[in-house]
Every structure is written in structure tokens, then in C-alpha cells.
TrEMBL record, chain A:
Keyword set, alphabetical order: FAD, Flavoprotein, Oxidoreductase
Catalytic residues (UniProt): 321
UniProt source species: Sphaerimonospora thailandensis
Residues of the FAD-dependent oxidoreductase 2 FAD-binding domain: 7-428
Coiled-coil regions, chain positions: none
Entries under PANTHER family matching the protein: SUCCINATE DEHYDROGENASE 2 FLAVOPROTEIN SUBUNIT (PTHR11632), SUCCINATE DEHYDROGENASE [UBIQUINONE] FLAVOPROTEIN SUBUNIT, MITOCHONDRIAL (PTHR11632:SF51)
Protein name: Succinate dehydrogenase flavoprotein subunit
Domain of life: Bacteria
From TrEMBL, chain B:
Top-level taxon: Bacteria
Species the sequence originates in: Sphaerimonospora thailandensis
Protein name: Succinate dehydrogenase/fumarate reductase iron-sulfur subunit
Gene3D superfamilies: 3.10.20.30, Alpha-helical ferredoxin
Associated pathway: Carbohydrate metabolism; tricarboxylic acid cycle
GO MF, any single term: electron transfer activity
Length: 634, 251
């Protein structure tokens, strides 16, 4: 069996994984990057709108405190506030660093990085390149890896002496040291050959992205089968906030084969508006109380805001995503939808055609090629699509260390940072900020080790992976997958009810049995049927966590909306739901954990009147005390 | 609306293979990649194909459709007639791993041969100042999604395995051009290097690469031809090269 020794193994080559690997290598660690697709094709490549960082290039009033506040508001105050703080503080440096590695962002008139408006961000904050920011980000990081390899080639005569990419290689198990219970490596197979591969390493960084492929309508690719979430859980780590899933308000709805593909929020950030079949800009009817004083109440004011932000409030099309997605859902349900079951998103009457093709080239291209719609001349039809999972591996905010020694996580696979709802643009910055921290955290951990852990469990992992190939006449994995997608979409989707979620859990139990009986025909060479059969374990495990946590949380908040508990309650804000499981994936448990109080200097960045909408009386008393302290000290 | 289409798909592994016939359902609005996926789900579970974004953004699903290099996810079924047989084969220029999946490692090796972006030592991150007009030219080349269709179609290597070691290919010519036009790149990128070390000299400007590029990058007009012209213009004139760099930063 192919076997490699490394100091740090990074699983995932998206923004978070690459940034983590670059950091580990820069700190002198021998680093492997393992990913399921080719190098440079990870999901991050699809990101469109931009990376949020309070550089203040367009509006000088912006700074980390404003960004921090927006992030907490967007997440309905459920966020891990330390992560939100670090994120807001580190993000500008991380973006500037990309520029020093060759990235070419769009510019302001005075030559700085241009920043665009996005939902929930008070000021123009997203560094971008047209609507292909993810491509720029991943290519820059990919090219940075190559630059480091060139350095190594010069010094050691080998490009891969210190950093090597194992592309098209899927990890199916984390390996632990039997004696200490610490991480000792990872086990996987090479997609191209079906051969097994073992990584022997004391530190593993999970950067595997999200879980969207458990839903029918999603903006996510085949890679998003929740592998990292499941690997961590099976290795004894915990998942947090799994009930919170972001349904992006604007996915394509037609033709059916592209249903769910993303229409970037930049369309609205750059002036696009939402209308129902009656032509009404319905978002004005859906401004929730907590945001009443921050959004325009008339179309005139909303329109003025694009040119004069100091004296006007932003249009409600730019409310956080959960609000917009629910509003679209309600309009369609009320019979005011578009012919193909969405609503209208129109930029054609808002900007000149050439502006549209300059600012939104890939949207123009996407609609033209896939739907025969010219977005410079007619409105698009859009509806909600499963987009992002806020929940993920519970980690330490500063080092991204999970509860299992030697395990780290960054990017979409980690949890906490975004609370109950992520703001657009806060993911790309999250990848950079916490990718770097995870790489540094893993390096520091390796430095402090006195003995190298010894991997165990390789034979078991091998047997598990081979099972589907050894069975004949079993279930078709594609059918089991499709059934799971329908179950999650219909029963644990954008609007949830207790009965439906219980039904989903029963469905998942049955699907687990069926998944345990899948048979894959063909050889081990590049066999997608076999790969899917293996992925089903992860999708089912993660779906169970989502459904269980969602059933427990009896309130509506961010990416979790309960038909039977439609309001947000201060009591529930203090309770985080944490999932764990046995090493064989059985016994999934969800437990409550108290949300720690926000540090005094952070909570006092908010007005009391705003906090009253979110916090309990006890917490408000803490706020008053913190404020008093601050006054005394100053 | 739906109909049954006739597909011929190349199937095989370990150096052997053949075209296999399928009859498969097609629905309104679908693209070739959808049909390949339907074949996987219903008739050929182990049919190998690469894809990720399904929206022309990642460059994974490159294949040859009726002999033309294309992205499977951006080729609509409505561009064919209902009685046409659609033939889908892997990229011809690279070794086949299985079915529609090729070994494209050639491209990743070439990427390493191009010297990386080299910023001036005295400019700190955050201090970069560039005008939109100055970054726009390089931005065009950075739109590249690395689908490698241009590499696949280029006759210099399509049927000439022996040229591969000396020829970086159009994807990497635009990378060189991109870096050369980058306002902050200070490395010596005299075009003779492209001409001699990276094989630009082999290119005889057939423009096939530009024609297949799904990102509509003007590979020949905006990268190859200007580099070739300059290579002729300034052979052995380091002063001219230096002047162009200084000019680039101050403009
Ligand atoms: C269409 C779209 C547009 C978006 N636009 C924006 C935007 O404008 N701004 C923003 O901030 N966010 C945006 N997002 C969200 C953001 O792009 C993602 O959350 C982010 O890119 C995730 O990055 P990551 O590094 O965590 O993971 P990814 O980039 O998804 O990378 C995951 C990596 O893990 C690997 N992997 C997974 N499982 C395994 C395994 N078992 N073994 C080995 N490797 C594995 C994969 O191969 C891949 O390399 C968008 C998302 C989508 C879908
Ligand atoms: S123009 Fe040059 S690089 Fe492009 S396909 Fe023709 S020969 Fe190849
Ligand atoms: S230049 Fe165009 S054709 Fe060539 S790899 Fe890039 S996107 Fe593909
Ligand atoms: S699947 Fe991404 S380009 Fe076709």
C-alpha cells in the first residue's frame, strides 16, 4: 500500500485548505494537500461575489468593529464571537497578502482594491474581480503553492520536497494512535486507480467544505458530501450548529437541469431588484423588526442609497440571506411567483447593458448559455437553493484545533464563526483567516510533540471501503442518494416542522440500511458508482445530525426556520447544539451547551436598544456592568 | 418535450476501449453533462467523467463532442437535432485514464516551469496601487478556468507527442503574458524566453486555441502575437526591456 510520512496533512484544496497548507509549509513543515478533484478545481473556484474585509477603501468609515457588528447581526448573535472578532481583524491583511502573491482585484479610482456592497454589510466591503472572485482566490493560492515548490526545487532539487498535492484522492477515515487517542494520519483511495493510500502524520487539517449534496436543489457540487464533518465525527470530534443551513435566495429555477445553480448576490449589490408576478418590489413588505431602522422603507430611498449612503438607508433586497430566502418562499407560496416557480430578479432596467456585462460577466454568460435569457434585456427567474452550512466542527477560535488532539479544521467544514446565518462574502475571508490560523495551529502542535503517534485501523478502513465492490445485486447507490436528497429537501428544508423532521429521521434510518447494502459494478479504476457508495455514509451521518439538531431547536433563527416555532427567543440564543457519534457512526447524540458570554469590550460595541432584541435579562445585566466598567476605566 | 437521444460514448480503461451505443432520455434545457449523468444513474454506473460546477466555472468537464473540444456542462442538447447521434470522447491530446477522464498532469508540470510572480521587495502588502486600465489586460488572462481545451486542440502537441517536452502550450503562453503585463512583476520576462524556453516558436498562429476557449480569451491576438512581435523587435536589447518595466509601473 502506498504510504507517506508528513508533518501536516491538509484535506481539501479549496481556499481554506490551500491557505492552511501554505502556512504550514512557510513554517517549515512537510505538508501534503489531499483533494478529491484536480488541483485548482475545488468548490471555492465557484465563488462569485467577493471576499469581505474592512479595508475601508471605498468608505473610510469602515473598520473591523463595524464588520464584527455586521457579522454578529447576520448570525443573529449566535456566532462564536471570538471567531467573529478575529475574522474581522485579520481579514484585510489576508486580502492584501493575496495581492502580494499576484492576485489582481478590481480597483478603485485611486488604485486601491475596489469593494462592493453585499447583503448585511453596512459599507461596501467585498474585494472582488467581476463576479469570478473565487477563481482569482484559488488560482492565486494555487500559484503560491507552485511558487513555494519552485523555491524548494532550487534549494533541494525537488519540487515536492516540502509541499505536495495529492489530487483526485479521497480520504475515507482519519487514523488515530490507539494509545493516546491522538490523530496519527489519514486513509484514502486514489480515484484514478482505486489504490489505497495511507498518510502518516501527527496533525491533520480538515478543509473539506460543505454538505449541500444531501439536498436536491443546491448550488453545491458533487464534492459537497459532508466528508470532513463525518470524518471528524467518526474520529470523536464534535459538530456544532448543524441545524443552521443557508438557503441562498437566488438560485436559477429554470431549466430544470440547472435548478439551484447560484445567481450571485452581487446582482442585488450592484442594483438588481426582486419583483413578484404583480410587479411589486415585495422585499419592502418583509423587513423584520430587528432591522427596521437600518433599511429603506420606500423605493426612492432605497434607490438613492446606491449613490448616497450617508443620507439614505439600504434597500431591503440587501437584507441578510435568510430573510430574503423566506420572503421569496412566501411570495411563491402565496401564488405571486414567476411562471417557472421563482420570483423575478431584474437588473436589466437598473443598469446599462454594458455595465451589466462588465460587472456581472459570468452571470450574463451563465443565463445566456444555460437558459437562453439575456439578463441585460429581461429579468431572471430565481428561487432559494441550499448553499452553505453554518454548522461544522467545533474548534478553538485562535488555533482551529478540534477536541481530538492533532485535528484542526478550517473553512466551511468548521462551525461557529457565522452563527445561525453567514453574510455573503464572509466565507472567502473566513477561508483565508482561519486557513492560515489552522496551518499555524497545526505547526505549533507538531512542534510541541515529544513522540510521533502511530496510526492504527488501516485494515478496517480498507475493508470498509471495499464493501460496495464486493457485494453483488445490492442497491443502486444513485437511487439511495436521490432518495436522501428528496428527504432532506422536502422535510428538513427551508421551512421546518416537528412531524416532518421526525419523518425525515425515520427515512434516514431506512436509507442507512439501504446504503449498507449498495453494490457497485465495474473495476476500481475511476469508478463514480463506487465513490458515491462510499460517500453515502458521510451524507447520511451528517443529514442525521442536521435533522436531529433541527428537531431540538424550538425557535426560528437565521438558517433554521420552524413553522411550529416561528419566533426567535433569547433563551435559545444561549444554547448551542453539539453533535457527537460513535466510531461506527451509530449513536448520534445532540447535546446542549451554553454559549459563553461576550467579552465586555466586544458587547459594548453594540447599543443596548439593539441587544434587547436578542439577549436575556441576565445578559443585559452583564452588558450594563460591562458598560459601567468601561466608563470607570476611561 | 422529452425524447430519446442516441449517444456513442467512448468507454475503456488501461489503454483499451471502444465506442458504446446508448439510447437515453433527454429533457428540455439539458446539457450533454446531464445526459452523461443520466447514463451513470441508469445504465452505466461506473462511467467516468470529471465535473464540479456545472456552470462553466471550474473547467473540469472538458471532452470532445462530435469531435469538437467542449465543456460538457455548457453544451446544450438543443444545439443538436433529435435524430442526430452524439459522439462523446475524451480529450485526444492527453492519455486516457478511463472513459472520458484523461491524465492532464502535463499541464501541471508546465505550470511549474513558468517562473512565478515576483513583486518588488520594497512594496508591502496593502501598499499596492494599480489603475483598473493597467490590471485589465492581465485580468483577461486570469479568467482562464484551466479547462485545457486550448492545450488539447493545439496541433503542435495534439498529434505530436514528441513536442510535449519543449512546448508549454497556449494556456501557459497567456500565463507568461499575464505576468509580463502585471504592473508589479519585476522579473526579467523578455519574450525571447517564451520563444525559446517555453516553445512559443513552435506556434504558427492557427488561432485554434482562441476558437475553443470557453472564456473567450483572445489567446492569439492579445498574448501570443504581441509576444512574438516583441521577441523579434527586441532580440538582445536589455535596455528596451528594462525601460518597458519602469514605464509599466509609473503609468
Ligand atoms: C456558487 C457559489 C458561490 C459562492 N460565492 C461566494 C462569495 O461570493 N463569497 C463568499 O464569501 N463565499 C461564497 N460562496 C461560499 C464559498 O465559496 C464556500 O463556502 C467556500 O469556498 C468553501 O471553501 P473551503 O475551502 O471550505 O472548501 P472547498 O473550496 O469546497 O474545498 C473543499 C476541498 O476539500 C476536498 N475534499 C472534500 N472531501 C474530501 C475527502 N473526503 N478527501 C479529500 N479531499 C476532500 C475537495 O476536493 C476540495 O478540494 C459561494 C459558494 C457557492 C457554491
Ligand atoms: S495559435 Fe499557436 S498555440 Fe494556438 S492552437 Fe495554433 S499553434 Fe497552438
Ligand atoms: S485559456 Fe481558455 S481554453 Fe485554455 S485552459 Fe484557459 S479557459 Fe481553457
Ligand atoms: S463542470 Fe465546471 S466547467 Fe463544466
Amino acid at each position: 500500500m502506498e504510504r507517506h510520512e508528513y508533518d501536516v496533512v491538509v484535506i481539501g484544496a479549496g481556499g481554506a485548505g490551500l491557505r492552511a497548507a501554505i502556512e504550514a509549509r512557510q513554517q517549515g513543515k512537510r505538508t501534503a494537500i489531499v483533494c478529491k478533484s484536480l488541483f485548482g478545481k475545488a468548490h471555492t473556484v465557484m465563488a462569485e461575489g467577493g471576499a469581505a474585509a474592512a479595508m475601508g477603501n471605498v468608505n473610510p468609515n469602515d473598520n473591523w468593529m463595524v464588520h464584527f457588528r455586521d457579522t454578529m447581526r447576520g448570525g443573529k448573535f449566535l456566532n462564536n464571537w471570538r471567531m467573529a472578532e478575529l475574522h474581522a481583524k485579520d481579514a484585510p491583511d489576508r486580502v492584501w497578502e493575496l495581492e502580494a502573491w499576484g492576485a489582481l482585484f478590481d480597483r478603485t479610482k485611486d488604485g486601491k482594491i475596489s469593494q462592493r456592497n453585499f447583503g448585511g454589510h453596512e459599507y461596501p466591503r467585498l474585494a472582488h474581480v467581476g463576479d469570478r472572485t473565487g477563481l482569482e482566490l484559488i488560482r492565486t493560492l494555487q500559484q503560491r503553492v507552485v511558487a513555494l515548490q519552485q523555491e524548494d526545487e532550487e534549494l533541494h532539487g525537488d519540487f515536492e520536497a516540502y509541499i505536495k498535492v495529492f489530487a483526485e484522492c479521497t480520504v475515507t477515515r482519519l487514523l488515530k494512535d490507539e494509545e493516546t487517542g491522538a490523530i496519527a494520519g489519514a486513509f484514502g483511495y486514489r480515484r484514478e486507480t482505486g489504490d489505497f493510500i495511507v498518510f502518516d502524520a501527527p496533525a491533520v487539517v480538515l478543509a473539506t467544505g460543505g454538505i449541500g449534496k444531501s439536498f436536491v436543489v443546491t448550488s453545491n457540487s458533487w464534492e459537497y458530501t459532508g466528508d470532513g464533518h463525518a470524518l471528524a465525527l467518526l474520529a470523536g470530534a464534535k459538530l456544532i450548529n448543524m441545524e443552521f443551513i443557508q438557503f441562498h435566495p437566488t438560485g436559477m429555477v429554470w431549466p430544470p437541469s440547472v435548478r439551484g445553480i447560484l445567481v450571485t448576490e452581487s446582482v442585488r449589490g450592484d442594483g438588481g431588484v426582486l419583483r413578484n408576478s404583480e410587479g411589486r418590489r415585495f422585499m419592502f413588505d418583509y423587513i423584520p423588526d430587528v432591522f427596521k431602522d437600518k433599511y429603506a422603507t420606500t423605493e426612492e430611498e432605497g434607490d438613492r442609497w446606491y449613490t448616497d449612503q450617508a443620507n439614505n438607508r439600504r434597500p431591503p433586497e440587501l437584507l441578510p440571506r435568510d430573510e430574503v430566502a423566506r420572503a421569496i418562499n412566501s411570495e411563491v407560496k402565496a401564488g405571486r411567483g414567476s411562471p417557472q416557480g421563482g420570483v423575478f430578479l431584474d437588473v436589466s432596467t437598473r443598469l446599462p447593458a454594458e455595465e451589466i456585462t462588465r460587472r456581472l460577466p459570468s452571470m450574463y454568460h451563465q443565463f445566456k448559455e444555460l437558459a437562453d435569457v439575456d439578463i441585460t434585456a429581461e429579468p431572471m427567474q430565481v428561487g432559494p437553493t441550499c448553499h452553505y452550512v453554518m454548522g461544522g466542527i467545533e474548534v478553538d477560535a485562535d488555533t482551529q484545533a478540534a477536541s481530538v488532539p492533532g485535528l484542526f479544521a478550517a473553512g466551511e467544514v468548521s462551525g461557529g464563526m457565522h452563527g445561525s446565518n453567514r453574510l455573503g462574502g464572509n466565507s472567502l475571508s473566513d477561508l483565508l483567516v482561519f486557513g492560515r490560523r489552522a496551518g499555524a495551529g497545526a505547526s505549533a502542535y507538531v512542534n510541541d510533540l515529544t513522540r510521533r503517534p502511530v496510526p492504527s485501523g488501516v485494515e478496517e478502513a480498507k475493508a470498509e471501503a471495499l464493501e460496495p465492490l464486493e457485494r453483488t445485486g445490492g442497491e443502486n447507490p444513485y437511487e439511495v442518494h436521490h432518495e436522501l436528497q428528496r428527504t432532506m429537501n422536502d422535510l428538513v428544508g427551508i421551512i421546518r416542522k416537528a412531524e416532518e423532521m421526525s419523518e425525515a429521521l425515520q427515512g434516514i434510518e431506512k436509507l442507512k440500511e439501504r446504503a449498507g447494502n449498495t453494490a457497485s459494478t465495474g473495476s476500481r479504476i475511476y469508478n463514480p458508482g463506487w465513490h458515491l457508495a462510499i460517500d453515502l455514509r458521510n451524507m447520511l451521518l451528517v443529514s442525521e445530525c442536521v435533522a436531529r439538531a433541527a428537531l431540538l431547536r424550538q425557535e426560528s433563527r437565521g438558517g433554521h426556520t420552524r413553522d411550529d416555532f416561528p419566533t426567535m427567543t433569547a433563551e435559545w440564543r444561549r444554547r448551542l447544539l453539539v453533535c457527537s457519534a460513535a466510531p461506527d457512526g451509530s449513536n448520534v447524540k445532540v447535546e446542549e451547551q451554553a454559549q459563553p458570554s461576550m467579552r465586555g469590550d466586544l458587547i459594548t460595541l453594540f447599543e443596548r436598544s439593539e441587544l434587547e432584541k436578542y439577549l436575556t435579562e441576565d445578559e443585559l445585566a452583564e452588558f450594563d456592568a460591562a458598560l459601567e466598567n468601561a466608563v470607570k476605566e476611561s | 418535450m422529452g425524447y430519446k437521444a442516441k449517444f456513442r460514448v467512448w468507454r475503456g480503461e488501461s489503454g483499451e476501449g471502444r465506442l458504446e451505443d446508448f439510447t437515453v432520455e433527454v429533457n428540455e434545457g439539458e446539457v450533454v453533462l446531464d445526459i452523461i449523468h443520466r447514463l451513470q444513474a441508469t445504465q452505466a454506473p461506473d462511467l467516468a467523467v470529471r465535473w464540479n460546477c456545472k456552470a462553466g466555472k471550474c473547467g473540469s468537464c472538458s471532452m470532445e463532442i462530435n469531435g469538437k473540444p467542449r465543456l460538457g456542462c455548457m453544451t446544450r442538447m438543443s444545439t443538436f437535432t433529435e435524430d442526430e447521434t452524439i459522439t462523446v470522447t475524451p480529450l485526444r491530446t492527453f492519455p486516457v485514464i478511463k472513459d472520458l477522464v484523461c491524465d492532464v498532469s502535463f499541464n501541471y508540470e508546465k505550470a511549474r516551469e513558468i517562473p512565478s510572480f515576483t513583486p518588488p521587495a520594497d512594496v508591502k502588502p496593502g501598499e499596492y496601487r494599480m489603475q483598473q486600465v493597467d490590471v485589465q489586460r492581465s485580468q483577461e488572462f486570469r479568467k482562464c478556468i484551466e479547462c485545457f481545451l486550448c492545450q488539447n486542440v493545439c496541433h503542435v502537441i495534439r498529434d505530436h507527442e514528441e513536442n510535449k517536452p519543449a512546448f508549454a502550450g497556449p494556456r501557459f503562453f497567456i500565463r507568461i503574458a499575464e505576468l509580463d503585463m502585471h504592473p508589479y512583476d519585476v522579473r526579467d520576462r523578455r519574450p525571447q524566453a517564451a520563444q525559446e524556453e517555453h516553445g512559443l516558436g513552435y506556434c504558427n498562429i492557427t488561432k485554434c486555441c482562441t476558437e475553443v476557449c470557453p472564456e473567450h480569451i483572445k489567446i492569439t491576438d492579445n498574448a501570443i502575437i504581441p509576444m512574438k512581435e516583441r521577441a523579434v523587435d527586441r532580440k538582445y536589447d536589455p535596455l528596451v526591456w528594462l525601460g518597458s518595466k519602469i514605464f509599466k509601473r509609473s503609468s
